[in-house]
């Protein structure tokens, strides 16, 4: 992850390097004292505070390289920049399991990528040889993901780019009798719009529908979350309950150059078949 680096965290904030840019933004889990001097924090190219970018929002987008992928960063209205560095390890895992699935199936695996955002998981799967349905309810996010496919040289890969509500799409695919070999999803805590998403209310029914799409022996399932209370043990239990597969859960963390470890959610996955 040469282009992605957590420099320091603490005081409810995180200082990160995304390629040539340094970003200072809130992170409630960093409830300790920062290790770097204040002068180091003042070097940030971008700073998010009080619900808005107070430094750097007008700068042009810039690319970062994450493994085999090239992804565009830019300051968004939500305070994000388009790349979640804590997911880079899950993208490496996806590339490995997609290749294993193709070897076992004797064909490219069919993968469903839900809440796909700017496409990191989708493009990791596509680069490894999968046929992917990328689903996100945000049209700008899907456009951003397609642009990342262009930057990564993956425009010819078999990806369906779908601006859809995840639950609506999955229910429709289930009625159609569609089947997928693998599923990856990173649901938010809540979402806006018609039938607004609430993870406590809607995740379990969605997993039930997904289990029907992959059948009793999915090639792989990956579930991640950044919601308090959804740690690795809970996510692993959800996969075991709804997909009847062994599952391992673990935290999503980043280690800073300054020596601290930042917790940023959790993920769980089924074993490679």
List keywords for this structure.
Immunoglobulin-like, globular, Rossmann fold, alpha/beta, 2 domains
Explain this structure:
30% of the residues lie in helices and 29% in strands. With 273 residues, it is α/β, with parallel strands linked by helices. The protein has 2 domains: 70 residues, Golgi alpha-mannosidase II (Immunoglobulin-like); 185 residues, 3-Layer(aba) Sandwich (Rossmann fold). The strands form 3 sheets. A 7-stranded mixed beta sheet has the order 10-9-8-11-12-14-13. A 5-stranded mixed beta sheet has the order 1-2-3-4-5, with no helix packed on it. Helix 6 links the parallel strand 11 and strand 12. The mean pLDDT is 95.
Protein topology:
Blueprint: E1 4-10, E2 13-18, E3 21-26, H1 38-41, E4 46-49, E5 52-55, E6 62-66, E7 69-73, H2 88-105, E8 110-114, H3 120-127, E9 131-136, H4 139-151, E10 159-163, H5 166-176, E11 182-185, H6 199-214, E12 220-225, H7 232-243, E13 248-255, E14 261-269
Parallel strand pairs: 3-4, 8-9, 8-11, 9-10, 11-12
Antiparallel strand pairs: 1-2, 2-3, 4-5, 6-7, 12-14, 13-14
Helix pairs in contact: 2-3, 5-6, 6-7
Helical amount among residues, as a percent range?
Answer: 25-40%
Report, as a whole number of angstroms, the end-to-end distance.
27 Å
Q: What Rg is obtained from the alpha carbons, in whole angstroms? A: 18 Å
Please identify which CATH superfamily of the largest domain we are dealing with. Answer: Vaccinia Virus protein VP39
Strand order of the largest sheet: 10-9-8-11-12-14-13
